[in-house]
Design goal:
The protein has four helices and 20 strands. The protein starts with a helix and ends with a strand. The protein has helices at 2-16, 33-37, 51-54, 239-242; strands at residues 65-84, 87-92, 98-108, 113-120, 124-128, 141-156, 161-180, 191-211, 216-223, 226-237, 249-257, 260-270, 273-282, 292-294, 299-300, 309-321, 324-333, 351-362, 365-376, 395-415. The protein has a 14-stranded antiparallel beta barrel with strand order 1-3-4-6-7-8-9-12-13-16-17-18-19-20. 7% of the residues lie in helices and 55% in strands. The radius of gyration is 23 Å and the shape is elongated.
């Protein structure tokens, strides 16, 4: 009961602090400090309770009751360099730090069955610019927040194979802000529209873990698509509203979040040394559009037509002492954005990351810390049909540049 109370308190915190980040596409993989330090190399290892997020079949390696909770801080930064009729104009995103909490618990029921619960975020993004910046007619602020609760059952078939199945219950909140100008009433200046919408979706998580021997293990994890029907409001500000020509109204839209398949191969030549290489395929081709329909007849049609993406990762963990671990990792993600439809919501075109981490154990307590630096490739706007960019009348092209993100993460664990 004590373990359940601890997990319950942390779950409440996680549900109240959904994560946002600048990521390839907008998928997140920062689900624990140890996992971040290992560049998500937890699919084949899967040997702590955060495996519920990476490959839940691995929790059959955990005796008794184990819990973990933690927090990540994600700080993205980038510059948009645009070609305009007034010359080159550059804008840097506003400084921001986004919180990414996580919480996990596993409970061994008997020699073959385990229960697990994970609360974390699979998707998120956040960007904001000055309200009067060059690309304000596309957007000047976006915040996509998701929280997933995943109750899981894992079955240890024998000493080699384990499988898992979980139900993902996802909450999504989206806020976008942009300027617009009435084409026949340009003398009234800019107007604001803010759309806030939220919704729920359901999906599934499935895992397989195989301990081939004391040195080699393999993991496979599949997360299904999640379709979210979001409902909310569109709120206007400006002279059009003041004159009664534009009123607040309801809004709705549907977003298809992609499925993914992860493979990890772990090798442990020594008791204090392990390696893992892995790959994650994400079917971003299901993300065709992000359309918002308003009850006043207005609509925001945003074509996406993204490409499927790959993440390739490698990591090492070394324990110089029984109570002290050192970790390092690397990952590379292929571009998924279709630059024919690129916009300022996700100025990303593939990314590379280096990660470092450390952890200590004291009796039944664990404390882990990790740092990640990401380099995000530039996105071109020379041929986009994104609304409010080339059709704004004064932007002729450009690109994002110097886009990076720093991530800091801390996790606390306890074994009951």
């Amino acid at each position: 009961m004590k373990a359940l109370r601890v997990v319950g308190l942390w779950v409440v915190l996680v549900l109240g602090m959904a994560s946002s980040a600048m990521a390839e596409g907008f998928a997140l993989t920062e689900w624990s400090a140890r996992g971040l330090g290992l560049a998500s190399g937890m699919v084949g290892r899967a040997d702590d309770v955060s495996a519920i997020a990476y490959n839940a079949a691995g929790i059959t390696q955990l005796p008794g009751v184990q819990v973990m909770g933690g927090m990540g801080l994600i700080a993205p930064m980038g510059t948009l360099s645009l070609d305009t009729t007034y010359g080159k104009q550059e804008t840097t995103t506003k400084p921001a730090v986004w919180a990414a909490p996580h919480a996990y618990a596993s409970w061994q029921l008997n020699d073959s069955l385990w229960l697990g619960l994970g609360v974390f975020s699979r998707f998120g993004l956040g960007n904001s610019y000055d309200q009067n910046w060059t690309g304000r007619y596309n957007l000047y602020s976006v915040n996509l927040q998701t929280v997933s609760a995943v109750p899981t059952l894992a079955w240890k078939i024998n000493d080699m194979f384990s499988v898992s199945a979980g139900l993902e219950i996802m909450n999504v909140n989206l806020t976008t802000e942009q300027k617009f100008m009435h084409p026949q009433l340009a003398f009234l200046g800019d107007h604001d529209v803010e759309v806030q919408a939220s919704g729920w979706g359901v999906g599934g998580h499935f895992g397989l873990h195989a301990r081939l021997n004391d040195e080699w293990s393999i993991g496979l994890a599949y997360k299904t698509q999640v379709t979210v029907n979001a409902y909310g409001d569109a709120k206007y500000e400006g002279k059009l509203k003041d004159k009664g020509m534009m009123n607040d109204c309801s809004a709705h839209g549907t977003v298809q979040l992609p499925d993914s398949l992860a493979l990890g191969v772990a090798y442990k030549p020594l008791d204090n040394l392990s390696f893992e290489v892995g790959a994650v395929w994400t079917r971003w081709s299901t993300y065709n559009s992000l359309n918002i329909y308003m009850d006043n007849g207005n609509q925001s049609i945003s074509h996406k037509n993204w490409n499927d993406g790959w993440n390739f990762n490698a990591s090492v963990e070394y324990k110089p002492l029984d109570w002290w671990s050192l970790r390092a990792g690397f990952w590379y993600e292929t571009p998924v954005i279709n630059e024919d439809h690129s916009d300022f919501m996700v100025p990303s075109n593939g990314r590379t990351a280096l990660t470092l981490g450390t952890g200590v154990e004291w009796n039944d307590f664990t404390i882990d810390f990790a740092y990640c630096h990401m380099w995000i490739n530039p996105t071109s706007y020379d041929s986009t049909d994104g609304h409010g960019i080339l059709d704004s009348g004064f932007i002729s092209g450009g690109n994002s540049k110097d886009t990076v993100a720093n991530i800091y993460m801390l996790s606390f664990g306890y074994k009951f």
